[in-house]
Write a structure and sequence with these properties.
The chain is mainly alpha-helical. The protein contains two helices and two strands. Helix 1 packs antiparallel against helix 2.
Length: about 120
């Protein structure tokens, strides 16, 4: 009976470890996407800032384009870059939490294996 409980606990810990590892990979992917979005906004900001003030700038809205002022576009790009940085910070904090959770799960898994080995040796 104890053997069944050990197997069940082992399976649960293994699943938790696998799930946490995959969530960490997902967070890494999201961080990369946010970095790319922020970099794109920063590069676009730099190019538009250097453009002459009388340059016509259009913003994509659904399936149409709307004429916008340079200041409006620059402000939107600054906001987009800032939001990307904030998202990256939040995702990094989430990754730290998940990493700690993963380490705890792995440690519990090791302890379970060690207890099983010691119980087998005692028998």
């Amino acid at each position: 009976m104890a053997d069944v409980e050990l197997k069940k606990a082992f399976t649960e810990l293994k699943n938790k470890t696998t799930e946490t590892a995959s969530r960490i990979k997902g967070v890494d992917t999201q961080v990369e996407q946010c970095k790319n979005r922020g970099k794109h906004a920063e590069l676009t900001y730099a190019e538009i800032r250097n453009a002459p003030a009388d340059t016509k700038l259009f913003e994509s809205v659904g399936r149409m384009f709307v004429l916008e002022t340079q200041d409006t576009i620059l402000e939107q790009l600054k906001d987009k870059a800032m939001k990307s940085r904030e998202q990256i910070q939040a995702l990094e904090q989430q990754k730290v939490y998940l990493s700690k959770n993963l380490k705890e799960s792995e440690q519990a898994l090791r302890e379970l294996v060690e207890s099983k080995k010691s119980s087998v040796k005692a028998s």
